[in-house]
Design goal:
alpha+beta; Beta-lactamase; 5-stranded antiparallel β-sheet; 13 helices
């Protein structure tokens, strides 16, 4: 069996060294903690659906999850509210920036769960009587996806809340449209805390593998969400997970993924594995430059492209 068929034979440290040739991109500076990130950080991890784990150097360096939390917020909202959550959200790609001040025409719904408007709404849909209870439910759910107890950086959460002007604008716009039923400030506070959860590449790979395994964590064996929920989340990751770069991503990489301004990318190859890359320098679409290159290499070397066809 070749490395293209067996992920456990892939040399992630060699892949990491090769990826350092990608020198483009810039570290996000929307909050001080992101601006302080090490531009030379590069961690890679993968977890198969049978629980086998591989990780490179720096795969245990902690970052804030940021937008990579969005698939998991969507999953928790679907788990808690089923078809009602789907009715409250669009699922179409936008071709616009992740924080565009825009809702669906005629419905007032967020265009999809992977942009900020959608994530604000999915975080508000998670079960809980108030903002504090929803935040507890989210942290517990993310911990179940990761297979260990995660924690929130209070400093990052505070800055996400205080400096997230566009998120406040989106929340107020959804309140005005009748889409968001909780208070705008509460919605932003819950989403800010979700973005401030600390993870590393290993955690994200387990989280992606849990989706890839139909909602069952392959490391702990716990059923985190239902198989239909995992399917729906991965479907939207494929079409919307890399924002206005999603088409180019699926052509080149061909694996459903979610990018993040902290430089994290989480991937879910259904029935095969979850993977994660953490590298802070970003391209114009807010996707890790080295992370994109590593993901393309993983896809090619492991034969993961969803639309790959045999050569004649």
């Amino acid at each position: 069996m070749s490395a293209a068929e067996d992920p456990r034979r892939l040399d992630l440290d060699d892949l990491r060294v090769r990826a350092f040739g990608e020198r483009g991109g810039a570290v996000d500076d929307s909050i001080p903690e992101l601006a302080e990130a090490d531009p030379d950080l590069l961690g890679i991890a993968l977890v198969t659906v049978d629980g086998a784990t591989r990780a490179s150097e720096q795969a245990d360096v902690k970052i804030s999850i940021q937008s990579a939390v969005k698939p998991f917020l969507f999953a928790l909202a679907l788990q808690d509210h089923g078809s009602d959550a789907l009715d409250r959200l669009g699922i179409e790609p936008t071709g616009e920036a992740f924080d565009a001040i825009k809702l669906e025409s005629g419905t007032g719904r967020p265009p999809n769960p992977m942009v900020n408007a959608g994530a604000l709404l999915t975080a508000a849909l998670v079960d809980g009587d108030d903002a504090e209870a929803r935040s507890r439910r989210i942290l517990a759910g993310l911990s179940a996806f990761a297979g260990r107890d995660l924690r929130v950086s209070e400093r990052i959460a505070e800055n996400e809340h205080l400096l997230g002007d566009r998120n406040h604008a989106l929340a107020h716009l959804m309140r005005a449209e009748g889409t968001l039923e909780v208070g705008a400030d509460d919605a932003v506070a819950v989403y800010a805390r979700a973005c401030a959860v600390l993870v590393d590449a290993r955690d994200l790979a387990v989280m992606g593998a849990t989706l890839a395994a139909g909602g069952r964590n392959p490391v702990t064996g716990a059923d985190v969400v239902g198989a239909a929920v995992a399917r729906d989340v991965i479907s939207v990751m494929a079409t919307c997970g890399v924002y206005d770069g999603s088409g180019r991503w699926m052509r080149r990489v061909g694996v459903p993924a979610k990018s993040s301004v902290s430089g994290a990318i989480v991937l879910a190859a259904p029935g095969v594995l979850g993977a994660a890359v953490v590298s802070p320098p970003l391209d114009a679409q807010g996707t890790s430059v080295r992370g994109h290159a590593v993901s393309a290499a993983l896809s090619e070397e492991l034969g993961l492209h969803a639309f790959g066809v045999p050569s004649h």
